Amino acid sequence: MQFDVKGNPDYGHVDFVLDPGETVLVESGAMAYMSSHIELNSQCMGGFVQALLRKLLTSESLMMGEYTPAGKQGELSISPALPGQVLHKTMDGTRDLILQPGAFLACTPGIQLSPIFGGLRAIFSGEGLFFLEVSGKGELFYNAYGAVIEKEVNGSFVVDTGHVVGWEPQLEWTIEGMGNLFSTIFSGEGLVIKFNGKGKIWLQTRHVTGLVGWLTGYCR
User: Fold this and answer.
1) N or C: which end of the chain has fewer CB within 10 A?
2) What is the SS3 assignment for the chain?
């Protein structure tokens, strides 16, 4: 399988060249264009129960598109729903990754997606109660809204919940208020994720909730 991530950081997308028998699993609705002989099947990634849990807990698609060329090499291009950067990571089966809901774009077979509980405070963060834990072996593609900043945490680091794309699970994390109760409510910052330890986090330069709030002002 060959792939090329293009259009970053504004309008990222991925172009694939697939040999016969090679398969890519893609988030529902992300296919932009493809060769006519590529076959599409829908599947519940990880089985129906796991897919249903992801749908109910993280709002990810129940069904994934399974794209496989028949007989000869084929081309496939995919694009995320939001404008921004697309990232690629080769998962080796030894180090997992935690993603915000909605960040997953595509993967090769061998990758698993599991919802993990973010704590009761997460329900007030605007990002939902659950995150996605990515494990297994294969190629992973995920996306952000805006450009992505990679930070190496060594100690303590605080991030607005809406600006986190993903992080390495060896980092300890808690969802907290921004200072005292008064600051949390009236500062406009709301809840934040506080990371502790050593590892990488990926941040997005734009905030989907902020965009929704800005657009709402024009819809009244």
Assistant:
1) C
2) CEEEEECCCCCCEEEEEECCCCCEEECCCCEEEECCCEEEEEECCCCHHHHHHHHHHHCCCCCEEEEEECCCCEEEEECCCCCECEEEEEEECCCCEEECCCCEEEECCCEEEEEEECCHHHHHCCCCCEEEEEEEEEEEEEECCECEEEEEEEEEEEEEHHHEEEECCCCEEEEEECCCHHHHHHCCCCEEEEEEEEEEEEEECCCHHHHHHHHHCCCC
